Amino acid sequence: MQRQSVNVEVRELARLLEVDDDQLTDLLSAFIVAEDLALRQIQQEESLPLMRHVSVGGANFDGILVDRDLITCVEVAFLVRPDLRPERTRAIMKKIATAKHGLQAMKSRLRLRLMIVLVTQLTESEQMTLRNVLKAQRFNETPVDVDIRMLDFELLQKLYIAEQ
């Protein structure tokens, strides 16, 4: 399921970037590296263990952070334009609603939070446009608290890849 999700995202990126099919492998590699580096950064910022590719209440997430009775479900998106597609937003909202419902059905006392991590290669003005787009989207209808983080792909590469 995770592979299918990644392939959908990579094909959408390829369409936006107008790259040929022979470049899909490179794009897939960049996507995987971006997700890995973003999850490393979030783990470091939160100072909590991060588990990758985990299902919570029947919904799959890129990662989760657990702090006592609070589970933070992490979804990573790689953006090349200052826009988080409405379909992607709806899919994320559906996942967190499914997770919450699943935990309620199990009569769990665990609380959920959603963290959306946007890995970008945007200019400052494009980042401002993205922030305005995100404010306009309906995250207030989400059944849990939402934390949106923006990370720059180039900075992540410099920070983590240069370390090695």
What does this structure look like?
This protein is α/β, with parallel strands linked by helices and 164 residues long. 49% of the residues lie in helices and 27% in strands. The chain contains five helices and five strands. A five-stranded mixed sheet has the order 1-2-3-4-5. A hairpin with a 2-residue loop joins strand 1 and strand 2. Helix 2 (24-46) packs across helix 5. The protein is globular and about 50 Å long. The two termini are 31 Å apart.
Features of the shown structure:
single chain; 164 residues; alpha/beta; five-stranded mixed β-sheet; 5 helices; 49% helix
Strand order in the sheet with the most strands: 1-2-3-4-5
Total DSSP helices: 5
Overall geometry comes to: globular
The major pleated sheet works out as: 5 strands, mixed
Radius of gyration over alpha carbons? 16 Å
Overall pLDDT level: 87
Structural class: alpha/beta
Question: What is the total tally of β strands?
Answer: 5
Secondary-structure element order, N to C:
HHEEEHEHEH
Name the quaternary structure: single chain
Query: Which band does the percent of strand residues land in?
Result: 25-35%
Helix content: 40-55%
- Tell me the span between the first and last alpha carbons: 31 Å
Indicate the low-confidence ranges by residue numbers: none
Sequence-ordered SSE layout with sheet pairings:
Blueprint: H1 2-17, H2 24-46, E1 50-56, E2 59-67, E3 70-79, H3 86-105, E4 111-120, H4 124-136, E5 145-152, H5 153-161
Parallel strand pairs: 3-4, 4-5
Antiparallel strand pairs: 1-2, 2-3
